[in-house]
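[Automated response] Your request has been received and processed.

Submitted sequence:
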Amino acid sequence: MTAAPHVESATRTATPVLVMEGLGKDYAAPVLDGVSLTLAPGQVLALTGENGAGKSTLSKIICGLAPATRGHMRLGGAAYAPASRREAEQLGVRMVMQELGLVSTLSVAENLLLGRLPHRAGWIRRADLHALAAQQLARIGLQHIDPATPVSTLGIGQQQMVEIARNLRDDTRVLVLDEPTAMLTPRETAQLFEQIDAMKARDVAIIYVSHRLEELQRIADQVAVLRDGRLVDVRPMAGVREDELVERMVGRAVHSLEDRPRRTAGPVVMQVRGLGRGQVVRSVDLDLHAGEVLGLAGLVGSGRTELLRLIFGADRADQGEITLNAAQAAAPAQRVHGNWRSPMQAIRAGIGLVTEDRKSQGLLLPQSIRVNITISDLAAVARSGWLRSAKERGIAQRLSQLLRVRSHGIEQAVSTLSGGNQQKVVFARWIHRDCRVLLLDEPTRGVDVGARADLYAELDRMAAAGKAMLMVSSDLRELMAVCDRIGVMSGGRLVGIFERGQWTEQMLLSAAFSGTGGRTASPPSSSPSTPASVSASA
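Generated structure:
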């Protein structure tokens, strides 16, 4: 076995809070092998690597969600081998998981204080419950959320913030954050970082799992890189170049897209006029062109996801209309007042949706990779009502290889894949369907930098083939790298559309805040050749 890299802690004189020695985990094959790390009080250790590299497995071992096959741990000098998450939490080791662990049928307050609900004679003291929950929400900047709100009514980004708030406890010794900002906007991310700084000052040790390298450079003291289940590098974060770290993660160079030119847009494929639903989405107009990627930025709750759901027919619109192929001579125009009656009608019209919540809305978890990919268009792999197994397997294999899905084969159950590889399967499904319009809601959530490069290359291929894509992302850097235009949602309205080469991050952020109490931004530009007039002081 190769010796693990030596970790020089910035606080070498302090007693380590957590020591891992030779940790390994086997399932059908080894997924983690010989990992040794030391974590000091008040230290932030960044843990990074490709999807399937073993990051989540290591995190689960630390937090009692999975037993190690070999190796051992010490917590504060004492032997540490938690048999459950509850046991780990009782010892002060907590985890914010990449996949949310909230109980959707309970309120925000009940989720925040689950297991320690204030009560008297067996009755929950609601006033005390809501007061304690409000204090915990305020610590993470969520004063606007009513503690009595059912979690199921919150957007996925707000649920992520509640999950983080649930784990900000004063008795925490070690906190593991697994992709905590994957669904957060810059404002929410900044609030989280403030809490991380406060926890460091209280000597809480933090393991921060992320693919967003700019975040690691902001908060981490050390960085550990996993590849294929092994620890390949541990070094101080200061001075580490992003391209160098990426190459250590994926074993190859990954090129930046930030300086690429705008794609040449074709005719309008989809027109949205006056589309709205209550106060969530308010009278949105936009044109989507063939061969372009139009991004949607905005804060959590700004209406981005809700707009995509309206376009896809997942929610009913109160007003407006959607027109497909209005400028196409080769295809008949399709116009619906309001929106599609159902997602199936939208799919038949040539619209696909990569959802933000892959587990509950995007995948058949017990089924295989093959089934999850080809289910979007069974007619393409059938003849006279009979499934053509060889063709189905060939398509699933080709798309799995195209997107570099890390698996033991196309018959592997999707539930056993890492989160990032599950996302690739969702993406592959719509490549198979060959939709004319593809709606992308946080399509690279939990996907590593190497896999993102693969997905971006596929977006380029689809754009070159004349597909039109509307993409929501909480990562402004991603939108600025990938998109030809970026629209900004604020307060349910589309407040501006910016052209490639004419935006800055400050302009996008200013527009995002314009509908939350600040000045209103100028009306959006719907033409790809006319720059939006949203000022940096909006």
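Summary generated for your ticket: Residues 186-201 form the longest helix (16 residues). The two ends are 58 Å apart (CA to CA).
If you did not submit this request, please reply to this message.
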